[in-house]
Prior knowledge:
With 372 residues, the protein is an alpha/beta fold. It has 2 domains: 40-114, Winged helix-like DNA-binding domain superfamily/Winged helix DNA-binding domain (Arc Repressor Mutant, subunit A); 117-370, Rossmann fold (3-Layer(aba) Sandwich), CATH 3.40.50. Helix content is 47%, strand content 14%. The protein is built from 15 helices and 9 strands. Helix 5 (69-76) packs across helix 6 (80-91), helix 10 (166-191) runs parallel beside helix 11 and helix 13 (279-292) packs across helix 15. It is elongated. The N and C termini lie far apart (47 Å).
Amino acid sequence: xxxxxxxxxxxxxxxxxxxxxxxxxxxxxxxxxxxxxxxxxxxxxxxxxxxxxxxxxxxxxxxxxxxxxxxxxxxxxxxxxxxxxxxxxxxxxxxxxxxxxxxxxxxxxxxxxxxxxxxxxxxxxxxxxxxxxxxxxxxxxxxxxxxxxxxxxxxxxxxxxxxxxxxxxxxxxxxxxxxxxxxxxxxxxxxxxxxxxxxxxxxxxxxxxxxxxxxxxxxxxxxxxxxxxxxxxxxxxxxxxxxxxxxxxxxxxxxxxxxxxxxxxxxxxxxxxxxxxxxxxxxxxxxxxxxxxxxxxxxxxxxxxxxxxxxxxxxxxxxxxxxxxxxxxxxxxxxxxxxxxxxxxxxxxxxxxxxxxxxxxxxxxxxxxxxx
Length: 372
């Protein structure tokens, strides 16, 4: 099912913004409907989430001729009143259809039910972001994640990851892993096209990339550089897994102005890492990474760049993630556009050796080396 607008092959990815967003592409009637969908967005979101959670969409997917209202109410263990409220809300959004007194699954409902990306996003928004986003404006004004107060008193969500409620942590990790993991297979072939015996994984989180590396190459040893709390989670994750004995930890606070990166690595890897910092902090981190590089070593940066997406849905999803960083994560970062990230690389004394788009569900991999 490939019905979505995409960039023509003759158009460079960085030209997509000019092509997609320089003019209105909807009629006045479509714009009015979209405005109302935005106004009632939180209502529709919860309607869809309940229909998913109660198994109603799954039931509708199982029968082409659908179900009656009483049948669906009984399956969901809700009153007919409650089920009608949900179904009528969903009906006008295309989630369900209604014909001959029977309810059927609509195309929107199919994607809500079957798209892994959509399900991950729904759980992430509900469990991690929903309540905190009420504080978006305050977070924007103060430059700190005011919404994080719903979970703890940390300055950033990363400091408190290991202490988040289990359901919240599960949704956070599922979100993080979904977007990164699917790009790892393609990234491995690029990184290990050069000899790599020692790899520094900066912000390695739970060690999923490090595990892929040691299982891909029996010669590589990986050092994960991250906060002490994160390293504790990582060590539990990798301890009994094949290759785990070739993964070490290096405790570090990336915002420590006196921090120097360890040297002697063939490759320095950053996956969905720099977007956790302000542009200024990301600049300083890349500069310190550059100082640690030898002539023949490389810095690899894996990021979802919203202006280099083939499909418009990916650009939309990625730009909606940025308010999470503002309200819940740190108050000062966002997902990058390519121009901002390439500017950071250049100012750090690095040059772009290659840039590969379209890894996984929308990542770009930058391979950088020292200039000259």
